[in-house]
Amino acid sequence: MILCLSSFFKGNDFLDQCKREGAHVVLLTVENILQKPWVRESIDEVYALPSFNDRRAVVNTVSYLSRTRNFTRLAPLDDYDVELVAHLREHLRIPGMGETTARYFRDKLAMRARCRDRGILVPSFVHVLNHDLIAEFLRTVPPPWLLKPRSEASSLGIKKFMNADDVWKTIHELGDLQSNYLIEKMIPGDVFHVDSIVSEGEVVFAECHGYKKPLFDLVNQGGIFATRTLPRGGEIERDLLETHGRVVHHLGLKRGVTHTEYIRGKEDGKIYFLETAARVGGVHIADLAEASTGINLWREWAKIELLQGEGEYKLPERKHGYAGLVISLARQETPDMSGYNAPEVVWHLKGNPFHAGLIFTADDVPTMESRLDHYMERIDRDFGAVLPPATTATH
Questions:
Q1: What fold does the segment set 2-95 form as a domain?
Q2: Whole-number Cα distances in Å, 26 to 18, 62, 70, 76
Q3: What's the CATH class of domain 189-383?
Q4: Tens digit of pLDDT for each residue in 292-348?
Q5: pTM metric for this prediction
């Protein structure tokens, strides 16, 4: 019996795969997404709380359900639920990632410090804690600097600064919340993400992708979200895979999936670790990976969570194709994507009001890059819209 927690609407493939594997599936979610199109036919029981903000209320709820249900597995479906589920696993003594390891995959300070201490390159950073150390950092590390919340997902809540006075003004405004932040040197360069499957401490599947525009720029400036498969066998892919293997090892992930971001410095060409998460990448990156490889990250994650090392996990046969993902805010509530019907278009974004998007495939890198530019320009012309940047995650 598996209990899945999700504070956002996602993970239907995970839930469905659990059911296919013969598990009794229980979903605990939040009330404002209870009516979303969950795969009810694959879920045996559904429960909802007003929110997951009150950890004690969640622990009490799960403990109450456990009086009459023998949960042998617990799984988070969203990044914000990783630490909560780790806490529940330890409280109920259920196998899976515990709180210490989970911290490395949620806390931007913890993951950076761990990687730096293990010889993995990270941008220079300082904890917003001791003011003397902060002052030294601002004196010795040239701007621009990024102020980052330690536990937000993606690029939410990140602020860019060019002078120390503005940094100190913001720090003082944070008051008692200061220790929840870090300051990091902003390194110019290309940003990549590696989406992987880990079984018994080994990376058994990894796809390297490159953002067309960094997420920080998209969140703060707007524009089209686009990412695509990196050239296979190239120098960048080799460097990313080598670094990623070390990151997974030193952060201690035993089994599961990861979405990890890296940057290649424009000035030195080196790969720097930015951040990681023990979950499937958002913004339909799992659909992108499936288009190029045939591997569904949600379904493979479900298999690994259910096994918990008690049986051998085998990765299905995979492809080595190329694919690109393009998503944009749209002026229309329901964009008409019917004209985007070329043979290479294998997926359309559906059910997300005021958004338009697609995934296409290609046989080679030049074709992929050409199609990516084409669809970015076309979608922007037909649907493109811009909103002020979000500061917190929304459902």
A1: Rossmann fold (3.40.50)
A2: 10, 11, 11, 12
A3: alpha beta
A4: 999 999 999 999 999 999 999 999 999 999 999 999 999 999 999 999 999 999 999
A5: 0.94
